Queue: 2 jobs
Job 1
Amino acid sequence: MRAVLKNGIAVFHPQGFLDGNSAETMLSIEDIKATEKLETDLVLVSLKKVIFFNKNGLETFVRMLTKVRKSTQARIGFCDYDTKKFNSIINFFKDDLSFSLFNTIDTASLFASNFKNQKKNALVYSENKSQRSVMAIELHNYGHNPIIAQSKEEFEEKKKNAKTYDVIIENSYMGCMENGNIVAKVSSNAIIYNISSFLDASISNNFNIYYHNNSLKAGFRLFIFEAYQVINMNVHAMNFFSKLASAAAEYNATICFVGLSKDKITQKFYETLEDSGIMFFEQLDTILDDKKLLAELGASTATNTKDKRSLNKAMITQLPSFIEATVDTIKMMTNAEAKKESASIYTIKIQEVEDKIASSIGFYGDIDGMVILVFPNNIAKKACELLIGEETDDKELIMDALGEFVNIIGGKIKSLLADNDIRVKITLPRTYNEVSELLTVADNRKGVQVDLTFDGDKFSFFLTR
Amino acid sequence: MITKDKIDTYIEKIPPAPKVLKETLSLLNDGELIKASKVAESDLALKSYLKHIVNKPIYGFKNEVTDISQIFTILGVARSQQTVYNYMLSLLSPKEWTIFNLTEQNFHELQARLSANYNKILKHLNIIDKDIQSCISLLPASIIIVEALFKEQKENIELIKSTKSIDYNTILKRLTGMDLFDICEEIAKKWEMSDKISQIIQTSSGIKPSEDKDINHIAKWIHLLLFYELSQPIFIEANLNDFLEFQVEFVEDIYEEFLQVIKVQDK
């Protein structure tokens, strides 16, 4: 069974009956290895569709997930259960809980990097006093507002005004945490990395520079390091960030630190980092909540002055695979044919930018580049119908599904290229509410533009480096 | 990926029930066990299937049973009918499985386990009804349908499933407006099975409750039994655990009783 990765949280969804034998069959070594590659900081097993479990079943899952935690430092645990199931788990493991328990996936998301600093109001209750404190501290650390009920009576009373809270946390438990790696998430089209503790030369090992460089190529222009939990850094870490900032400058990209107060590092280091172009902010929200500032920093209006590389022979040879992946995915998800209309090697040219949305995904490895798709709004909606499952005009939902859709295309590209012995990895997809945003990233880039039609409506595919 | 036309073609290609089977079922329906066994003897594949399936450990016979008339006599009218329907369904199963990691042998194992445990349930519920008894045979048709319709889409399905937790039934419904249980119903019609069997199978999807209280009740047991079996290691390995969405709320009120009937170990 493979975990489903959504918003940076990897979740396994077993169904039915979970005992030692079935759990062992559900998670193979290959499944664990695949999970380790997902670069997530939260790996959970949803018990929503599990009607029966016993201790052996849960222990088997915990044993396998612990392997993921050891190699990725991700938080592991179970989610989506009722009070009866929670009590059973507590009873099974008593004081030996080495994993976390979240009553719902919404509760779990508060402890995931992707949902940091969203200032969610969370009503919290646990019979265990130390757990109440641990949850309060963690929620604060993750940028939320915990409201702690000190007694069951107080909790029940407060729960009557459920609408006051974004999330109600009960029957939950924070297991031991071994966070240390650097996980990327996307918010407001900014890539956000989380760093903590003492930063030294090991930062260059923990930071995935290939991923970062390809995010630059995929059009991301704002990179934020969340450094609330950083204690200090040495000269090696400072040099690493300086170099990163210099490289980013070539793309007109910005690197920011949030939560790294001046008293945490020396004045000299601070000035060196500032001189290399790094900007400092107290809070992440200062950036994310301010659309104007976001735009100034590059999250939506970046220009692309560097790396206008031409397509090379290797890319052109593989062009049919890229087109096939796109056309096949559209056909697969909609049952409608996507047809190739015209192809030209030129700079990206989008006629009539109104009412269109776009998404891009980068790839890197044996070959590197970026695929851009530009859809009319109604076509994007149609293409995502299978993923959404209902008719909607909710732009956020459509953009979210479009990201998933392009991710599937990315996966298909990866697999088609692998058939030709070309190994690539894909970046997170980036979505653009307006085509104008895309053009600031991709304008004047040379590549292959293929105009396609889907049910008679035109959309554009663009492959560039 | 999957179109309504493809489904129609699939249904079109399902052969009608062979003459021997129709005659066997008709005689069983009239309670003519000996006559039915004589007709069944003439179909060597049916004969071999019956011998193979009833001698599985889950049927619990101490000695090997080889004679068809003996098999029908031991099983009785309703269970004999159920077993013949199991055979009919196995005729639809593919020689090689692509989506699911199944073999002919473990598909038969699934049929045998479903039938044996279903009979325990019917005994517990004190239900004696040939149609209700037979409907369990149609349930694995949903697995055969997924295999037939999605076999060329294995990689694509894996890609979608890595992005979203979504089952085959939902994909099929969203793409074509028809779900697995609608197709099961079409098979039932083609094989001239009773309307009641179709209704029970539709309701056992857990998403289409029936207005008939009795049908609703037995459908809950079938739904839970299916997921009990799909949680067995042999069927998890076959990738069957999440081919359909388990509707926990649908079966919650019979769950404790189910554990007692099937004797699920809480350790």
Job 2
Amino acid sequence: MNSARTDDQEFSGTNSNLFALYRTMCRIRSFEERVGELFVRGQSAGSMLHLSIGEESAAAGVCAAMEPKDTFTTHHRGHGIFLARGADPARMMAEIGGKEAGYCHGKGGSMHIADMGLGHLGANAIVGGGIPAVVGAGLSALHKKTGAVSVAFFGDGATGQGVLYESMNMAALWKLPVLFCCINNQYGMGTRIDQATANPVLHERAAAFGLNAQTVDGLDVETVAETAQTMIDDARKGIPGFLVVDCYRFYGHARKDKSPYRDSNEEETGRQKDPIAFARNLLIESKISNDAELNSLDVDISAEMDATIDFTMGQTEPPLTSMFRDVYAPDQPEPEPLQTRLSRVLSRELPANGGH
Amino acid sequence: MTMMTYRDALRQALIDQMKADDNVIIMGEEVGRYGGAYGVTKDLITMFGETRVLDTPISEAGIVGAAIGAAMTGLRPVAELMYVDFIGMTMDQLGNQAAKIRYMFGGQIGVPMVLRTQGGTGRSAGAQHSQSLEGYIMHTPGLRLAMPATVSDAYHLLRQAMAQPDPVVFIEHKGLYTLKQDVDLTREPPAWGEANVLRHGADLVIVTYSRQVHFALEAAPKLAATGIEATVIDLRTLNPLDFETIRPFVEQTGRAMVVTESVLTAGVAAELTARISEECFDFLHEPVIRVAGEDIPISVSPKLEAASVPTPALIEKIARKMFQ
């Protein structure tokens, strides 16, 4: 695959951090484009699909700074984070398609995907809903002396939720190994941050809690990764942090949202802030890689992600018999299905006196 | 056998389980230095240290959310919600997160946590500190729900709750903390989820739980004096609900009364009544009767407060009417 290289420089691209981060970001974007396609085809299970195109540097940069033992929660726009963490895109796509082969056997979908093996304590469809869990994971890490850090990923919209401040306070008070990562894509659904936030300098709120608080420009994934590394190292030492990654949500809130609340000039300018294009230029300018190699990478990723669609389309939905499973642990009986109960009730034997 | 209070039995259960399992931690408002608003966690911080008994800020949603994260990463947190009336503050974490995590994530993981709280009337605590909100919990699939009436259950049910693989909401009754009974701490307790038949009578079955168990037991001898022998069933847990213990008594007596302190409409009493009616219709001589809290907020006036929920006299009076 490197045959297109014409110079005689020893190839170093795939060994570089930037190349790895770039690859992660490209895989995220490619995956999300395919997921969007799945949605348009009517093959995605959810009626809502939230893409993180434009926000890939946050996922790639922060996850690169995490260790395997670390845990995290995400929000409703979390595909990229899970992929950056090492998720199998085929099982992710299958979950988003509501298939049995998905990470949660088709019961979770895009907004409730999780995988304990990768430390993913769960995506969340409630804005801010997954944040306090990292406080508990931080307590566990302290109690069990695991050295693990727990990262809460959420959007700027979650800064309107009270539970965030409860969690920040507890993390700072107890010096927990926790990082709050706010991916500021400028929009909570259709409301721009300045229309919903009295002080849009979000890290100042965290600083008020005594958290190690910083904002980083999401245009440059290397800066995101370096900042995240420092902050996660600090968190591991008991200095919890709050990292804001500034970026722009390229598309609407959900797949079908055409963004009537913002004008096309703003979108055009916003989309200039593209971490993938920026990294690509940097890779070429600094001669870490070249066009041919990066094009070849694109082809490989496209093929990988096309295969996830093919995989998903070939999968089946979970069987109806699984519907009552996992409401409770197996020590408790599954809930009795309505029709079973009614058949039993309506075919009961009459008492000896014939009843009423 | 040991004579002890409901409060001390709860405390002993926490102590014994914390000794048995290093992963049990307690967290909540005033659980440490203060010792718990009702004294259940008194001195536990001295015994187990600040890392296992955490005084938290007044952040009910954050407390429950943190307990969820701790439970998902290997601890067995016992979070305390000072009053069940504050449960609205936690409802996203409890109802959307804790209750659904096992199901949404395809059975990968459960949330083995206990939310200890207390409810009910009896202390002139007013409309926001006296409610019986077990219906909110029973209405949420995925949450287990225990409500001990006796000192024995205060101990054994709490220890069992702390070993459950799913979230358990454990609602104590503020009017029972000083109740003193004999308890055998070492005996094998009834299985989790089993109801307890506390009195046998051939004429009427009274199905209840928590403090109303005592009210029903107080009414029963007076009913007996008028020739009505009542069976009294203490449900102990509302989820799981042990209907199979109820069934034969309804079939045998043909008369069932459901007694709850929670309000009448769309509540636990309604659910129990519907089940008994559906399952045992042909055996019933009378409609299933609900004796429940009035559909009103609780007043701070002790007189109005006492009249807002069932009393032994009310249970007796209505039971007698069922035979007229």
